[in-house]
Specification:
With 303 residues, the chain is α/β, with parallel strands linked by helices. Helix content is 47%, strand content 14%. The chain folds into 2 domains: 118 residues, Indigoidine synthase fold (3-Layer(aba) Sandwich), CATH 3.40.1790.10; 185 residues, Indigoidine synthase domain (Indigoidine synthase fold), CATH 3.40.1790. Strands 1, 2, 3, 4, 5, 6, 7, 8, 9, 10 and 11 form an 11-stranded mixed sheet that branches. α3 runs antiparallel to α4, α10 packs across α13 and α11 crosses α12. The longest helix is centred in the last third of the chain and has 26 residues. The relative contact order is 0.14.
């Protein structure tokens, strides 16, 4: 196992000192934002985690290794490269074996974090059941990973380009708890609310930490979704974002865009139709998830 994983100096030191660590994905760097904004945001997110008492571990595939914690140069390389593959569970062995550059999705980041002994992961939003999945079977691997890998994912819910109702049903079937942080309903990424209630509400990170510890002590395999709404100041009006998403979905259908190309297309279209405001919202929510993730990791480490 060790031949495949390389921990950064900072992550190694944190593990030796039993300090809390927060995993971060890298798809947001390579596929989510333009350069140099992606690298700048990644560094800012890492610093937010440090400021809140934890160690950041951005995860990516470089030089035939699963890198857990990236140096400044590695962040720069990842953010400024064109040929970076998007890595999910199925892609991980091939990309490591063939020494290709890979940016980890939620599912792959969970796997790599678990291999490195990290149980808290902060990201933007999780994947889910796509609209029309009853005929296409298009369901994100993130949901299956949440069912079996012991990593809690702090996120702003799921993007409303997905079928949020079916996403919640799938998570329920798989026994994955959805814990609302200071919210009674599932946030929908760009907006703070949706019509779907979370399973449990927790108003402090200590309660979430105790819940996670108890879950794993009871050997109940799998992760948890910690649903953390986008800060009020950066949330987008629900009616506006809904109309934009409907337009983007129609265009994707017309162009026969399918599979893993759907989400990048929709996000780019949403950014275009909102004059870049959706990207600003995305950055704000990722930063807030990093802050809450760090506080949660600190509480969990203290138990």
């Amino acid at each position: 196992m060790k031949e495949y994983i390389a921990l950064s100096q900072e992550v190694q030191e944190a593990q030796k000192a039993n300090k809390p660590i927060v995993a971060l994905e890298s798809t947001i760097i390579s596929h989510g934002m333009p350069y140099p904004q992606n690298v700048k945001t990644a560094r800012e997110v890492e610093n937010i985690i440090r400021e809140n008492g934890a160690t950041p571990a951005t995860i990516a595939i470089l030089d035939g290794k699963i890198k857990v914690g990236l140096t400044d140069d590695e962040l720069e390389e990842l953010g400024n490269s064109d040929n970076v593959a998007k890595v999910s569970r199925r892609d991980l062995p091939y990309l490591v074996a063939t020494k290709q550059k890979g940016a980890t999705t939620v599912a792959a980041t969970m796997i790599c974090a678990d291999l490195a002994g990290i149980s808290i992961f902060a990201t933007g939003g999780i994947g889910g059941v796509h609209r029309g999945a009853e005929t296409t079977m298009d369901i994100s691997a993130d949901l299956e990973e949440l069912a079996k890998t012991n990593v809690a994912v702090v996120c702003a819910g799921a993007k409303s380009i997905l079928d949020l109702g079916l996403t919640m049903e799938y998570l329920e079937t798989k026994g994955v708890p959805v814990i609302g942080y200071q919210t009674d309903v599932l946030p929908a990424f760009y907006t703070r609310t949706s019509e779907f209630p979370v399973n449990f509400r927790a108003d402090d990170t200590a309660t979430i930490a105790k819940t996670l510890k108890t879950k794993w002590d009871l050997q109940l395999a799998g992760g948890a979704v910690v649903a953390n709404p986008i800060p009020e100041a950066h949330a987008m009006p629900e009616d506006k974002i809904t109309a934009v998403i409907e337009t983007a979905l129609s265009e994707a259908k017309e162009k026969n865009i399918s599979g893993k190309e759907v989400t990048p297309f929709l996000l780019a279209k949403v950014k275009e139709l909102t004059d870049g405001k959706s990207l600003d919202a995305n950055i704000a929510l990722v930063k807030y998830n990093a802050e809450v993730g760090a506080k949660l990791a600190v509480k969990l480490a203290a138990l």
